[in-house]
């Protein structure tokens, strides 16, 4: 009587593309987030799809869902990674000095990731890893003598200055010059708009980093003891 045969893998099963029972080796949430971030920074936020990220990793989209629930979850993971590098502990002998240094450092860091602000202003997602940065800023406003309400308003003002300057001065795609805006400003009539024409006439041509000056002026207005000059 011949020995009993042990059933082996069915070759046809592989040909039919039956899903794996185990995740693809080397595929991790971190690797997927890094691939998604590369895709955004190379092609823009609209390019972030599960299919495109899978292609970036050389795999199929269904394999990603073992690690990431959907596109929003992937985007949030990317935001969390970026937010984890916001400055928290910074040098400074006074709350004003620490606030100035922290906000200036955050501004310079986010200038390389302006696309993140386009996500945040929608008001749908928030990275929890950004909370320590916010907490440190609020703590310094409180330490400077502001009330809880005053600290909240002061932090909002500084954050709005930061994001507004970044969105205005660091566009995702720099426009061709001269723009319609450039031409309209250059054609200002000083007889009808004297103050605007007078101020614009003193503006130096070319880009200028006005954020540090604006930030110091704002903190000076908000704090009992302003940052050191």
What's this model, at a glance?
By secondary structure, the chain is mainly alpha-helical. It is built from 12 helices and no strands.
If you had to describe this structure to a student in words, what would you say it looks like?
The protein is mainly α and 229 residues long. 56% of the residues lie in helices and 0% in strands. It has helices at residues 11-15, 29-43, 50-57, 61-64, 71-83, 95-110, 115-120, 131-143, 148-169, 180-186, 194-201, 211-222. The chain is flat. The model is unreliable at 1-23 (pLDDT under 50).
Topology as H/E string? HHHHHHHHHHHH
Number of helices: 12
| Cα shape | flat
Amino- and carboxy-terminal Cα gap: 98 Å
Indicate the structural class.
Answer: mainly alpha
The fraction of residues assigned to DSSP E strands is under 5%
Radius of gyration: 26 Å
Report the biggest beta sheet as strand number plus sense, adding barrel if it closes: none
How much helical structure, as a percent, in the residues?
Answer: 55-70%
DSSP summary, beta strand count: 0
The overall average pLDDT, rounded, is 87
Stretches where pLDDT is under 50 for at least 5 consecutive residues are 1-23
Keywords:
disordered N terminus; flat; 229 residues; mainly alpha; single chain; 12 helices
How does the SSE layout of this entry go?
Blueprint: H1 11-15, H2 29-43, H3 50-57, H4 61-64, H5 71-83, H6 95-110, H7 115-120, H8 131-143, H9 148-169, H10 180-186, H11 194-201, H12 211-222
Helix pairs in contact: 2-3, 2-5, 6-8, 6-12, 8-9, 9-12
């Amino acid at each position: 009587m011949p020995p009993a045969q042990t059933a082996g893998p069915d070759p046809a099963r592989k040909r039919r593309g039956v899903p794996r029972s185990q995740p693809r080796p080397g595929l991790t949430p971190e690797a997927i987030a890094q691939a998604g971030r590369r895709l955004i920074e190379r092609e823009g936020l609209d390019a972030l799809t599960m299919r495109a990220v899978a292609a970036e990793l050389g795999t199929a989209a269904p394999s990603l869902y073992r690690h990431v629930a959907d596109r929003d979850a992937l985007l949030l993971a990317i935001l969390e990674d970026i937010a984890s590098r916001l400055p928290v502990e910074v040098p400074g002998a006074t709350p004003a000095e620490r606030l100035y240094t922290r906000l200036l450092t955050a501004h310079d860091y986010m200038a390389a990731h302006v696309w993140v602000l386009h996500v945040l202003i929608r008001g749908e997602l928030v990275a929890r890893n950004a909370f320590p940065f916010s907490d440190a800023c609020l703590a310094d406003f409180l330490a400077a003598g502001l009330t809880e309400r005053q600290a909240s308003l002061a932090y909002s003002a500084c954050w709005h200055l930061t994001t507004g300057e970044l969105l205005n001065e660091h566009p995702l795609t720099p426009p061709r010059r001269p723009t319609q805006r450039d031409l309209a400003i250059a054609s200002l009539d000083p007889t009808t708009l004297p103050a605007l024409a007078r101020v614009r006439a003193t503006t130096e041509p070319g880009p200028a980093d006005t954020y540090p000056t604006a930030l110091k002026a704002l903190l000076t207005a908000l704090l009992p003891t302003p940052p050191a000059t």
